[in-house]
Amino acid sequence: MPESRQPPPRAETGGGWLPHGYHLGPHSHTDGQLVYAAFGALATSTERGTWVAPAHRVTWTPPGFDHSHRFYGRTDVRLVVIPAGLCDTLVPYPSVFAVSPLLREALLALTDRPEIRPGAFERLRAVVIDELGETPEQSLHLPEPRDDRLLTVTGLLHADPARSATLAELGRAAGAGERTLSRLFHTELGMSFHRWRTILRIHHALVRLAEGRSVTDTAMACGWSNPSSFIEAFTAVVGQTPGRYQADLAARPNTVAAE
């Protein structure tokens, strides 16, 4: 694929290369939008939290949701618009879907070449919607709280994901006890404190790995005591080892360029 492709306008289907750290500020669409990083990684943020999508996941934002994107590593980003009238078959909230081989090829075909036969893109888009009909992959969703006490705790961890403080220790800064905060994590964020902090650390790890940092350096910087525990946690959440993830990143530019 030629390097000269430019990112598409916000409301159109297409693709382009974006530099590391590129940020698209808060905006919304009247149609639904899929954003896929064929190479690199992206984070999509809404009022419901943040999703990080490496190359085997695609982010979905329904019509009317304010959202922003940030891209990590040099990113081959593909954008596919789903007309509002076709969005009822998909979940009505922002999410992340796993990318099957068929879905990947359909996304690439929609964004990598002009339509040759009338109706071809419409048929490909129908394939995409069918593939997205399965339950969306939620493991990389990091919900954000509204409760001021939780905001204090999560803010401290956002500032330093490697911070090893216990929930009780963090609670002193928030003016709340461990039991209260534990209950709030479950009722407001739908997960335990340990799970939330693990997802936060995985988000930071994905970014560092996309930047070319080593697995060992990433493990230490993101709060794991040793690489093996990091590899275990990363694999459980992302679905592949950090080494495999980096190897895929290294191999993908040549693969994409040849398509």
From TrEMBL:
Gene Ontology terms, MF aspect: DNA-binding transcription factor activity; sequence-specific DNA binding
InterPro entries (alphabetical): Homeodomain-like_sf, HTH_AraC, RmlC_Cupin_sf
Ranges for region Disordered: 1-20
Keyword Repressor attached: yes
A Pfam family the protein falls into: HTH_18
Compositional bias ranges of the Pro residues kind: 1-10
Gene3D superfamilies: Homeodomain-like
Protein keywords: DNA-binding, Repressor, Transcription, Transcription regulation
Domain HTH araC/xylS-type: 151-248
PANTHER family linked to this entry: HTH-TYPE TRANSCRIPTIONAL REGULATOR NIMR
The name this protein goes by in its record: HTH-type transcriptional regulator RipA
